[in-house]
Queue: 2 jobs
Job 1
Amino acid sequence: MKRISFFLLAVAILAGIVAYMPHASGQSDGDSSPIYGVKIPAGYRDWKLIAVNNLLIPGKVDQLRGQFGNDIAIKAYKEGTLPFPDGATIVAIHWNRVPSEFNNKVLDPAFPGAQSLVVASRMNIQIMVKDSKKYAATGGWGFADFTGEKPGDKALHETCFPCHIPAKDHDYVFAHYSP
Amino acid sequence: MKRISFFLLAVAILAGIVAYMPHASGQSDGDSSPIYGVKIPAGYRDWKLIAVNNLLIPGKVDQLRGQFGNDIAIKAYKEGTLPFPDGATIVAIHWNRVPSEFNNKVLDPAFPGAQSLVVASRMNIQIMVKDSKKYAATGGWGFADFTGEKPGDKALHETCFPCHIPAKDHDYVFAHYSP
């Protein structure tokens, strides 16, 4: 019995160390986010669309955004399952919103003053991965923010969870399904 | 030989009648568009996303839009194939763009004046189906505009192709792939 207890204790300690490791390092290993160790999931641009939205922060941000879900996330959205099950992954692409000179020119005769705004380059992507045990301290979510292939720094990633706390009633996820 | 010629003539006439039928009636049969006879394709909300954009027509329209492609359309976009091959289908969902009171409230302390704009109800959907023979007179595209399950009238559908003519260099399709 003692031996089993010691074994379980050792496993628990090891699990604790492993779970803590990404926090302890606080550094990206190049292709994963600091704190959380989240990588860019393969093929996410082809995932199903959750929602589209537009964020304007005066003088700072003018973005068209699309959130994409893997099959676990999409199923949860469609069935209204909260909290999201482990394995649910959401990737938000943030594109800069710019006027389309071409569209505006051809639309204007029919609709004076028409403004067609389209996406230009990507600004960044943000990722949420659900693992209720691994990320228990942050609502069960691991976060990542990448610009191109490069994850943001630790200071940036320390802002992810606090920013998402107001969305607690929707399991910390701001995006609702666009019908 | 005469018999074969007559047979071919009969086939050609019949084909002509069948091809012309949707034009001749000019009426929707309830679940397909007038002029073109295009129906809502099953499952399109789960298709891959082509692009997101935002259309503002002062006093008339404020929409977030998403274009979805079937596999033929997505392949053509990714490979830069123009014109789009027969069978390519694009569905654009037009949602009304509205401020998110919830998001704005929680964002404002960190980003004063922040405006999060999200989708409300759908306004309509628009569909383009490529069939270079059937729709030869309209750039190879059949068009449809549905509000809910109901197709718009003939007068509305008469505006589809003329509106798309300026996008001729992109095979009459305005939407470019959002990277």
Job 2
Amino acid sequence: MANFGLDDLRVVNPYDIAFREAVSAVGGAHVLKSARVFGSVGDAVADCSLVVGTTAAQKRELQQPLERLDTGMPPLREHSGQAALLFGSEKFGLSNDDLSFCHSLLRIPTAPETPSMNLGQAVAICLYEYARRVPATPRRARSDAIEGADAEQMTKMLLDVLEQSGYTNRITAISTEQKIRRWVRRMRLGRRDIPLMLGILRQVLWKFRDSEK
Amino acid sequence: MANFGLDDLRVVNPYDIAFREAVSAVGGAHVLKSARVFGSVGDAVADCSLVVGTTAAQKRELQQPLERLDTGMPPLREHSGQAALLFGSEKFGLSNDDLSFCHSLLRIPTAPETPSMNLGQAVAICLYEYARRVPATPRRARSDAIEGADAEQMTKMLLDVLEQSGYTNRITAISTEQKIRRWVRRMRLGRRDIPLMLGILRQVLWKFRDSEK
């Protein structure tokens, strides 16, 4: 991260001893020292209006757009709000729940028979690509993308509607939650859509409650 | 190396214990197993007609052409004979003697104040760049964008929900309809999202009707 001029490291539920005893590379002490620990991915990206996940894309059917690292990096590079690049653990990668917080996914093109990468190397390659060149004519970046906390509020409220309408019972609740979370992030909502959307959901919930009296 | 389809690893005067006890990453066993040990850089590159060195290029006056990784990689990639990419030790990099075997030098562009890189990460980035191909064809357009009829069905059903929940009364109906119509089309919905979305709306409407009985 220090090599490529980045410093906002956020760590979710790290293995405590390893994290506390981690020694930074030359010139990277400030990154490790200022790293923040979070209890969940949702908390870690709460102020981010763009979350891009990384995956070897081997096992799962992915629900988000998956792009090659070099062609998929420009939107992250040009994003004008707070953006996050999300990596999973060395062993398991990102879970389906983790993935549901992502707007899109990147994969590093590798030899087909050896897709699994060392985490530190994968991070280095992604940040190299991030810093690689300055785009000549940057596309206009969206400045009004909604932040993680707003997206999560909408997700929760929509889930309330689904549960109270009896929808959620029809399929397993967890897969619904992930599905809805992904879906909210995939919509092209801007900040000014939030009051409208929350207003609609609030009204539906009110109607549910009112009719039960 | 295995991640990027390379397998001819040559090691010069390795620290013996570390090298013998090295454990390869997943899928990389064959690279480590077939690695050859040499007593000097000269021996290691004896059969190579192109040797490209890597350097942070900080301290020394360099005698060879120094290129940025991305612009300097094509000659290596396109070389028809045996070519070597040469890395120095983690601590000291390539010595002046090592450098004298090189035809040219590459440097990974880094933040000016943090030029020194972890060896494994530097190798990964160089091999990523080596294997990276410039995309020949533009990205494929999304073929699963929803059609107007689907969008309209969703718009109408959403408006039903708004009306029956009492939402629409609060603002003028026409502006709501236009707002919702624009909004549905601005969402990044694909065709497979339609059944989910319509299912949710149907369920909410059903719940409204059911509670009025």
